Amino acid sequence: SDDYRLRRDGLRKIGRAQDAQEMLVARAQYLCRTSPEDQNQLAKEKVLCLLQLERFEEANQLLEHQIRTCSISQLSVWEAEFWLLRGLGFRAVSRLDDALRSFQQATSVCPKGGNLEAQALFELGLQRLLMGEGRPAELALRNCVSAAAGANYADPAGFCLGWLCMKNQRWTEAKDWFGQVVERQALNLESVDPAICWGQLAAVYQSE
User: What value, to the nearest 5°, has the Cα angle with vertex 113 and ends 99 and 84?
Assistant: First the structure.
């Protein structure tokens, strides 16, 4: 219900992830016989709580189970969602090779077109940047921009591409990428905040 979601999100926002986790356990008992959509949504929320609590092994075990279940049931959207979460969890504990494999799996199983594919391609490109793999990173980020087509991930991918071109002294291309982001920002006031983009690039700088 909306009331449940408001209370859960409120607890998470003020840092009471443990209380939110307990709410999820109670909710799981209530929803144990509901649809796969509800069960997967609940599992996703539980993983997010576990990651916030830095209980990475528990989160990874749950993700393994959900990925296997979704693969058998051919629920490709949820399978991709869980692969993405697994990649983000591995990135958080600096298991970069495992994170890369997870993002690759996400791109391979997610439906083509739309924001989910764009997110998977963006995370894959960013992961390759973090690992110093410039060419594969550029390819994934270019594919992200093509898939996003005005959706949320076109801007952060464009920022990363501009930065990558600057790093390689490809000044004209860098100007073009940054120019595209500025143009989209001007046309779409609900576009992604540039601070998100720079936050991602800061992680790349820190990794070098």
Answer: 20
pLDDT tens figures, 108-145: 999 988 889 999 999 999 999 999 999 999 999 999 99
pTM: 0.77
**Residues contacting 53, CB < 8 A, separation 6+:** 17, 18, 21
88 near 51, Cβ under 8 Å?
yes
For residue 57, give both structure tokens: 């092994």
CA gap 149, 109 in Å, rounded: 20
Choose among 117, 29, 122, 25: nearest CA to 77. 117
**Tokens representing 129?**
């940047």
Residue the block writes with tokens 């209530």: 30
